[in-house]
From TrEMBL:
GO molecular function: oxidoreductase activity, acting on paired donors, with incorporation or reduction of molecular oxygen
Domain Luciferase-like positions: 14-245
Residue ranges crossing the lipid bilayer per the database entry: none
Species the sequence originates in: freshwater metagenome
InterPro entries attached to this UniProt entry: F420-G6PD/mer, Lucif-like_OxRdtase_Rv2161c, Luciferase-like_dom, Luciferase-like_sf
The protein, known as: Putative oxidoreductase
Amino acid sequence: MKFALAFANTGPFSNPDKAIAMAQAAEAAGFESLWTVEHVVVPSKYDSPYPYDASGKMPGGEESPIPDPLIWLSFVAAATQSIKLATGILILPQRNPVVLAKEISTLDHLSKGRMLLGIGVGWLEEEFDALGVPFADRGKRNDDYVAAMRALWTQEKATHHGDFSYFDECIMRPQPANGTIPIHIGGHTDIAARRAGRLGDGFFPGKGSHEQLARSFDIVRDTARQCGRDPDAIEMTAGGNGAIGPNAINEVKGLSDIGVARVIVPSFLFYRDTADSLARYGDEVISKIN
């Protein structure tokens, strides 16, 4: 089982010194990856419902710092050796896919192949409005951008003719260290699960009981088969809010039983005594599972 930290670029870890200390401690404790979140802006008094909390509002409030995930990951990459660098998630439809492909590939090249790209279509319509990106077509835009980026990462002279991105024989260097970048599809809906089955290297539902997760994973695998893809090649990731405390090992084993390959533990559980608490988790949970 792989272990990761969620919301790695938020809270106290938006501070540069604390970010470095946390990343190094997580690496030493045996965590496989750091997963960052993003919002370019959070419009004050937004009405769009946040789908991962019963209140409909983001945790931490509108003014909580959320450093750009790619810049934050670049910063901690320089101070670590092996821990993987993930977005979980990056709101792909809001980005220019050609520029993003170059940014992701450069970070992967400089970090020697440590990049994981978790993407989602977003939920905050007011943020899309502020960025001048249509909210209604974000799903189609997302899928087009995935194809565009993969073309740039894998083709010598990349060509892509999509509805939202279009280019011919473009050379982009450096390309990813391992030939491409793993793309993990975020989202808890059936639509997200089907998208993961069609085009994802991984699936990361934002919430769900074991039963709900198992159902979503079945949708991913069934869709992959229908598309002629290997369902077993799609890596399943799940949140690990319960993977802490005396029941942590049983929780992780339960997730493993339904096909989860990576458990992402919230970083806010390690806000206090960060280095010591991460080391304890490594000793008491990670080392006993692995």
